[in-house]
């Protein structure tokens, strides 16, 4: 009896060791798999070409092999894009192209487009990537002579400083705020909530105890940036008149004096030895966005419904009236030379969430690179309400798009940004503002963003890599598919062309506000036009030193343009602007 028990005991001991060995092997195998997956993700996210110094790697666009499609040759763009071009001419709602077999190229459930959108979303630059790009940009190291004045009361209805407003929820510092206000021609810079910068030439509120300004700057720990309803105010660098150098001073043109001058509320400034520079500085000191010169008089004011600055006169009228006005007929003595000063028009800077939850969900949909952020900025200025987003872009939130962090279905924003175009995603919205931009400009803008962020530019070296032709071959068909899908599945569609917004901003903004069922004043529309650039416009018009589009690329894109133009006309919309269409 003892011998069988001994054998059983030995077997159980061996079984314990065996089970322990299996457990350890299982854990090790799981660890190896996790490491392999992590390395695969890093490999997929890395650039295929050696990274350029100080720039994040470019996310590789989806390749045809990954999508289960025949490889796309750089020299011959075919496949799905050619099917769009061949069938775009005959696209009609309810036609043969509307069925599942004939319109497979159109449906966003197509594996290629769905995968492409997914890859695009995951390729958005992270906050870490953006900070790397911004750190690589050389910044002016100018010592400030400004000094701290004190802590002042501030609220949304009675601002202590009523000039321009600048927000950065991540990197705000007192130096950044003073720099911004100085370049815009203001004498005072104020910081609030640790992230908001206000500029002005006059402090209009009461001073309080300094300890009430107790919040650190978001980008500079230990440096005070106001408090809740409290503004830390600094003077900016003091320079003698005539020595200041401002950004964004722009000559608007020669304009006839309005018939009812009192309705324009122009402020007359008397000056000896009047020059355009002294007139501009006088209007900046009075916090006006417009300086109007008619020798020997200087006027300051705003654009108004009676003085819109939409109908310029011949320049010779102003040159004559500003030289020998005493001997001129009275008809030639009423023309102004108008300058846009760096002062921000403050009539449309206050923004809020909708006071009541909206029952209608409106999309602001576009292909990436079509100017969605710029149009959101314009809508917020014109309506006074924040816009939301289907995604979350920390960079946009940090720069003042507060609706970016709000849940996109909350109903608190006036419209919601999206780049999606699947049928299921489209049918979640009650209506859509469909923003379209030339595919040539859209593709370049999106490639710039991928290489260098929202405000940067791709270098010539980027354009010469194989990433660019692969990007065009993948993304060009998405540009066409995006428009066609929204035309097909959208319930209520307002088509807006980016280029028309640039040339006729106020009428197009008025139609957008009407579509959003929002009442806006003419003054607010003109204010939006005055502040249209915002903080998310790439400086200058930097382009590659060579044409990045090859003949094969142009053949592909031109065919897609024709297909989209025909689809718009067949859907009772205005076709694409003539500048899109190939000659």
Automatic annotation (TrEMBL):
The keyword Iron does not apply. SUPFAM superfamilies: P-loop containing nucleoside triphosphate hydrolases. InterPro entries: P-loop_NTPase (IPR027417), Sialate-O-sulfotransferase (IPR051589), WSC_carb-bd (IPR002889). Residues 145-237, 248-342 form the WSC domain. The keyword Repeat applies. Keywords: Repeat. Pfam families: WSC. PANTHER family: SIALATE:O-SULFOTRANSFERASE 1 (PTHR45964:SF8), WSCD FAMILY MEMBER CG9164 (PTHR45964). Belongs to the WSCD family. This is WSC domain-containing protein. It comes from Oncorhynchus mykiss (Rainbow trout). The gene is LOC110504075.
């Amino acid at each position: 009896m003892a011998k069988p028990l001994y054998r059983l005991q030995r077997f159980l001991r061996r079984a314990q060791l065996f089970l322990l060995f299996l457990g350890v092997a299982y854990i090790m195998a799981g660890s190896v798999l996790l490491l392999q997956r992590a390395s695969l993700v890093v490999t997929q996210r890395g650039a295929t070409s050696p990274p350029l110094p100080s720039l994040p790697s470019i996310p590789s666009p989806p390749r045809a092999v990954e999508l289960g499609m025949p490889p796309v040759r750089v020299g011959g763009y075919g496949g799905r894009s050619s099917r769009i071009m061949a069938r775009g001419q005959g696209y009609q709602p309810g036609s043969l192209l509307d069925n599942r077999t004939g319109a497979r190229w159109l449906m966003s459930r197509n594996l290629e487009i769905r995968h492409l959108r997914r890859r695009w979303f995951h390729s958005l630059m992270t906050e870490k990537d953006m900070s790397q790009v911004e750190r690589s940009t050389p910044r002016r190291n100018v010592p400030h002579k400004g000094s701290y004045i004190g802590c002042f009361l501030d609220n949304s209805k009675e601002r202590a400083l009523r000039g321009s407003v600048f927000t950065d929820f991540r990197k705000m510092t007192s130096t950044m705020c003073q720099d911004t206000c100085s370049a815009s021609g203001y004498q005072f810079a104020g910081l609030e909530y640790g992230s908001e910068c206000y500029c002005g030439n006059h402090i209009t509120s009461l001073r309080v105890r300094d300890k009430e300004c107790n919040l650190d700057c978001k980008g500079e720990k230990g440096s005070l940036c106001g408090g809740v309803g409290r503004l830390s105010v600094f003077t900016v660098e003091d320079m003698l008149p005539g020595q200041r150098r401002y950004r964004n001073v722009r000559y608007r043109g020669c304009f006839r004096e309005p018939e009812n001058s009192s309705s324009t509320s122009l402020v007359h400034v008397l000056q000896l030895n009047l020059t355009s520079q002294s007139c501009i500085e006088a209007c900046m000191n009075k916090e006006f966005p417009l300086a109007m010169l008619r020798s020997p008089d200087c006027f300051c004011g705003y654009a108004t419904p009676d003085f819109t600055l939409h109908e310029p006169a011949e320049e010779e009228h102003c040159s004559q009236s500003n030289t020998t006005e005493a001997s001129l007929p009275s008809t030639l003595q009423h023309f102004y030379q108008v300058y846009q000063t760096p002062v921000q028009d403050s009539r449309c800077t206050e923004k809020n969430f909708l006071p009541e939850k909206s029952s209608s969900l409106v999309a602001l949909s576009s292909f990436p690179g079509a100017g969605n952020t710029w149009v959101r900025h314009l809508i917020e200025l014109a309506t006074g309400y924040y816009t939301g987003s289907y995604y979350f872009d920390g960079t946009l939130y940090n720069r003042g798009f507060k609706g970016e962090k709000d849940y996109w279905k909350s109903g608190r924003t006036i419209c919601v940004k999206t780049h999606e175009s699947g049928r299921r995603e489209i049918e979640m919205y009650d209506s859509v503002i469909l923003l379209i931009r030339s595919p040539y400009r859209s593709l370049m803008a999106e490639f710039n963003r991928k290489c260098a962020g929202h405000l940067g530019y791709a270098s010539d070296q980027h354009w010469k890599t194989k990433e660019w032709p692969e990007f065009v071959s993948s993304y060009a068909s998405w540009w066409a598919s995006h428009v066609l899908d929204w035309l097909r599945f959208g319930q209520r569609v307002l088509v807006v062309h980016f280029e028309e917004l640039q040339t006729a901003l106020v009428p197009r903004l008025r139609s957008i506000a009407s579509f959003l069922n929002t009442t806006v004043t003419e003054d607010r529309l003109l204010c939006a036009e005055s502040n249209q650039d915002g903080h998310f416009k790439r400086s200058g018009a930097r382009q590659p030193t060579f044409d990045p589009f090859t003949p094969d690329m142009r053949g592909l894109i031109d065919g897609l343009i024709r297909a989209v133009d025909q689809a718009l006309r067949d859907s009772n919309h205005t076709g694409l602007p003539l500048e899109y269409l190939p000659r």
